[in-house]
Write a structure and sequence with these properties.
Elements lengths: L1 E11 L3 E4 L11 H8 L3 E4 L6 H16 L8 E5 L10 H8 L6 E5 L5 H15 L4 E9 L17 E12 L8 E9 L7 E3 L12 E3 L1 H23 L8 E4 L4 H10 L11 H4 L6 H11 L8 E8 L3 E8 L1
Parallel strand pairs: 4-5, 4-6, 11-12
Antiparallel strand pairs: 1-7, 2-3, 6-7, 8-13, 9-10, 12-13
């Protein structure tokens, strides 16, 4: 059986670091309030003129370097983002050009914070079907561009950044002991679209708009749906939750992560956490966390990982992979 294995990871964070204290003279909030409710201590904001594609290109180069590959070795580029440079063309084609890649194909996926999981599932399916041998999967966001700086319930949560993973085809035995992506689970339910959305768009206001969120309801759905999708993906792979070595969740809120881990009966020692330093980077948060943990040497060959995310739509999903 063809499997999609992780060949390399990489990430990029903008140079500007914004501590929680930055918000204190602008909003009715404090460092203590933000930390207590979210676990976030700081985040990165893109510089003026720095675009989502710029972040994606730098993360992609880091992943290619880690994999020991050149851009011309890649068959496809998939970028998960909700903050594209332009309405079109896709960020992926801009990344493709920025890497000097003149072959293959590139496209974007928009599933908000769940975008990277959706992109990962797309890449896995293409590799399994023989449509590609190597796929560069990127999550890249500049959410600072769509913040309402008067809304303390949202603007303190988000940051900018990009993460990338190189997936490569490899032969497996078709068992749960194979390396690579073993199972994925994708879901969406549009009846909840008003819980988390941006109030602008090409066909509505003609503006980019600002992010709006009903935080308490999103929290409730997130805890329930993240645990459920993880269990479904594990069931598809034929793996028991106690066999999981690492949970790499969407880094939205520490309380959501803790509640999800508890539902999965996983100790926090098995959870990769970057939310304190990155904030919520939407589709970039999982590949950022993967790359950071990989660079720290935390993943060992054969380790079993679960990644999971939920975002606007609502859209949510998970993937099980062996390192």
């Amino acid at each position: 059986m063809r499997r999609a294995i992780v060949r390399g990871t990489g990430h990029y964070l903008p140079e500007r670091v914004v501590e929680n204290s930055w918000f204190e003279d602008k909003l009715d909030t404090s460092d203590e309030w933000i930390r207590a409710r979210t676990g976030i201590e700081r985040r990165h904001f893109a510089a003026e003129g720095q675009r989502t594609s710029d972040l994606g290109i730098l993360a992609a180069r880091a992943a290619l370097d880690k994999a020991g590959l050149a851009a011309q070795d890649i068959d496809a580029v998939i970028v998960a983002t909700s903050t594209p440079d332009l309405t079109f063309p896709s960020v992926a084609t801009m990344v493709q050009a920025g890497l000097g890649m003149t072959r293959g194909f590139a496209y974007d996926i928009q599933a908000v914070c769940a975008g990277f999981v959706f992109a990962l599932a797309n890449a896995d399916a293409m590799i399994r079907a023989g449509l590609a041998e190597r796929v560069l999967v990127i999550g890249a966001e500049t959410f600072s561009r769509i913040m309402d700086w008067t809304d303390r319930g949202t603007c303190v949560l988000f940051g900018d950044g990009a993460g990338a993973v190189v997936l490569e085809a490899a032969e497996g035995d078709g068992t749960a002991q194979d390396r690579g992506i073993l199972a994925t689970d994708l879901n969406s339910d549009g009846q909840y679209r008003d819980l988390l959305y941006v109030d602008g768009g090409v066909a509505s206001t003609g503006t980019a708009g600002y992010l709006r969120m009903q935080g308490n309801l999103v929290f409730r759905h997130a805890v329930e749906k993240l645990a459920d999708t993880a269990h479904r993906a594990l069931d598809k792979a034929g793996i028991a939750p106690e066999q999981v070595d690492w949970l790499v969740p969407h880094q939205a809120n520490l309380r959501i992560i803790e509640a999800t881990a508890k539902r999965m009966h996983l100790p926090m020692q098995k959870v990769v956490l970057t939310v304190a330093d990155h904030g919520n980077t939407s589709a970039a948060s999982i590949p950022l966390a993967l790359s950071v943990a990989d660079a720290q040497g935390r993943f060992k060959p054969g380790d079993l990982l679960v990644v999971e995310a939920i975002g606007g739509g609502l859209a949510w999903g998970s993937a099980v992979l062996r390192w």
